[in-house]
Amino acid sequence: QAHKEPRDSTQTRVRSLVTMSTNSDVFLTNTSKEVSVHDAQAVGGPGVHWAQESENEAAQVAVLCAPGVPSFVASLHPHGALFERPFNLSEACAHHAGFVDALRERGVRVHLVGDVLRRSALPQLRRLASARLHYRLSEDLDPLRASVHTLRSCSAQYKRQIVQAMDRDQLCQTVMLSPTVTLGETPSGETCSISTQFDPLGNTVFTRDQQIVTRKGLVMGRMALPQRCGEISVMELVFKELGIVPVGAIPAPFTLEGGDFLPAGPDLCFLGVGVRTSLHAALYMLRQDLFGTRRVALVSDYFERRQDRMHLDTVFNIASDRVCLMMDSMIGEDKLHRRLVTEYVYENGAYRLNRRDVEFAQYVRDEGYTIVPVTEDEQLEYVINFLNLGENRIICVHPRTKELLETCEQFDGEVTYIPFTGITNMYGAVHCSSQVFRTKLAAPPLTPSTVPSCKQSDAVEEAFPRASFKTSAPPPTSAILDDSPSSSQSDRTAESSDLLAIPNFSALSMLSSSPHDLQLNHAANVHLRSLLKTRAQSPSSVLHLQTTNRVLMIVPTCFEWNSDTSSDNLFQ
């Protein structure tokens, strides 16, 4: 319909389509409102830099992705696709369209992932589709007995021919569904397709998670779970088409997801560390000066680590410059679900540790915030996961949010409730479902500092001192893993620190038969090898692994061990 409009038309009416035909909108992205052509234009470019300083800063641009065919395919097994429960796709599309309307009515330029992908440069779109399309031989077919035609059907040249023939809609469907075609042969030797499997990017609806937007700018993240890893390359292409250039990217094996980041002004930002965002990703960002605020508060989830509270924005959110919502079961030193804050301050050209293990609620109060407590049951209903459009304008998905804020004396703003259960059934609300850009600058700002900066290399080394120990005795509870020189890694793989701590190491398939006998299976062995790059060590070097509760300590033997030093202190 857009192509049928006159060339001088300034607006285009787009209908919402709920169909799965080849020419349909695979993302079901569009709303019944009139969409300005201005929204379809790039927002960045040379000399333009997008960032955000605060959750209460006026939102100018939002990137969203509506549910569609990928979400439908993923919903066939909701829990396996990381969805909270089964959901109705038509309802989800309608509720998401209402969210898009609410943003546009409030002056926010909304860009939908599906629309941006369709108009992206064709060579880049084909390259991404080719990377997401796979062919393989059936396990029942012996490659030595397969026909030449069948073998050619698995070649890169054949895949290139298929991709070249696709139109933009087909390319977008291929990107979002990632099909794998299994080939076999009939008894007469003819090539046939036995099955087609899909690896859908159904969670791309939650566009908050693939990146964070700091005061410095866009930083591409790295997803913690395999179901979502393919989303990063999609969002990279989307931002490239929009003209928004990242200032950094998180390297493997670190993980960073956007739901853990909340900016609170040029002086402070919060980053959750726990289920989805790793400590080493946070330290990497500190070293690379990617936050841009004078202080950074790392909010660590040591004691709970639950899926339904996977990100910081599920238990804490900022409604205004002085009001926030927080889950009540994590407020107080005596609470089992409490979070602890480690604060870094930027001075002399680098971030330095200022204080640690501060109870989160007390830290927030010290910053002058009034905390509005929310019960655990209300948290599970997404009362906290609202979206602040800036200037105390809130969009929420539960009437209780509206009630709590309107009865708070310190809050003076506007709260709008929209139905969103079609999306919350997928495990997220409006904050999860939107990536907001608030500040348009000519260049990334300097990080505030009261001390003249020194050489960056010296400052980083001083801010992150290396571990050192006194005696050469190995730790009493240890296991030895022979280590060989690491193979070449991608350019996004970072060198590890000399001391590496991995919380919740059971996720790496570790098996412990007793506290003094740590066993490593093959999968864990391979994962650890990819995790570490030994620093100028011989091929015969070994690593000592010390465990305390659910924390894995990896210490190269070139360090000397002090038997009086506990593993807790080492982790600190």
Please name the defining characteristics of this protein.
alpha+beta, disordered N terminus, 23% helix, 572 residues, four-stranded antiparallel beta sheet, disordered C terminus, globular, 16 helices
How is this structure best described in words?
By secondary structure, the protein is α+β, with helices and mostly antiparallel strands. It has 16 helices and 30 strands. The strands form 10 sheets. The chain has a 5-stranded mixed sheet. The protein has a 4-stranded antiparallel sheet with strand order 25-29-30-26. A 3-stranded mixed sheet has the order 5-4-23. Strand 9 and strand 10 form a beta hairpin.
Assess the beta-strand content as a share of residues: 15-25%
Query: Which bin fits the share of residues in helices?
Result: 10-25%
Strand order, biggest sheet?
A: 12-13-14-17-18
Secondary-structure-derived class = alpha+beta
**Biggest β-sheet strands, sense, barrel:** 5 strands, mixed
What low-confidence regions span 5 or more consecutive residues with pLDDT below 50? 1-37, 452-527, 533-544, 546-551, 555-572
* Average predicted confidence as pLDDT: 79
Tally of helical segments: 16
**Rg, please?**
25 Å
Give the strand tally: 30
Instruction: Identify the overall geometry.
Output: globular
Beginning-to-end CA distance, first to last residue: 59 Å
